[in-house]
Amino acid sequence: MVGYEVVPGFGALDTSTEWLRLEAKKPDVIYVTAYASTLVTLIKDAARLGIMERGVVLCACTTSADEGILRIVGKDGDGWYMPSVLPSAVEVGDIPALKTCADAARKYRNWIFEDVGMWYEVGWFDTMVAVEAVKRAIERVGYENLTGRAVRDTFASLTNVETGIWPPFSMTEEEPWGQQEVRMYIIHEGQLWPRGEWYEAPIYPVELYRKYD
Predict the structure, then answer these.
(1) How many whole angstroms separate alpha carbon 110 and alpha carbon 3?
(2) Which of 49, 67, 192, 208 has the fewest CB atoms within 10 Å of its CB?
C-alpha cells in the first residue's frame, strides 16, 4: 500500500490532481472505489492523463463500471479491470437465464439487454430469492404464522438456491450476505469480458452487518 486519495463520492468534476499525486508514488495497481458520475470523471481523467500507458493497472471496485457507465466513457474505459458479483451482458449466450432476462427486457421495456444488463439482472435475482425465502418460511411456520421475522430467519438459513444467474445463493447467521463469489472482468471495446472463474470473496466483515441486525 503506497498511498490513497479521496475525491467526492458523487459529482466530482476533475480528479487530475489526485491521479497525478497517486501515480507519482509509482503504484503497480490503483483500485478505484467510486460510482456513478464520479467514476465517469475518474475514468476519463485517467485516460486523458495516460495513467494506464505508464504501466499502472487500473481496477474499478465491485460491479461499479456497469453497462451504463461504459456507454458514457466509451473507449476511455478499455483496459480497466473490475470484479463483479453479476454476470456481464456478453454472457447471454453462455447463461440461459440471462437470455430470459434479455427477452423480457425487449418484450416489456423495449430495452436492449446489452445496454442495461447488470442491474436489470438484480431485479430478477432478488425477486427469485425473496420468493424462495417466503415459500420456505411458509413451509416452516405456516401461512398463519408468517411474519417478517420468520422470513428474515429463513433468509439466514438459505442454502444453494439456484437462480441460473449467479452462483448458488447461500446465507447464514455467521455470513449474512447473499453473494459469496465474484469474478474478474476486463473492459474491452466498451463491454465487460469475464477473466477466469468465480472465486469466493466475502465483501465485508460480519461485524459490519451485525450493526444493522
Answers:
(1) 45
(2) 208
> What is the per-residue pLDDT across 53-77, written as a single tens digit (0 to 9) for each?
999 999 999 889 998 899 999 999 9
**6: its cell numbers:** 479521496
Residue type present at position 40: V
CB contact burial 26-55 (16+ within 10 A = b; e otherwise): ebeebebbbbebbbbbbbbbbbeeebbeee
Average pLDDT over residues 111-121: 85
Cα(148)–Cα(135) distance, integer angstroms: 13
Contact yes or no for 204/177 (Cβ under 8 A): yes
pLDDT of amino acid 199: 67
Comparing CA positions, the residue from 14, 162, 172, 24 lying closest to residue 97 is 162
Collapse the DSSP code of 97 into the 3-class scheme (helix H, G, I; strand E, B; otherwise coil) and give the result.
Answer: helix
What's the grid cell of residue 127? 425477486
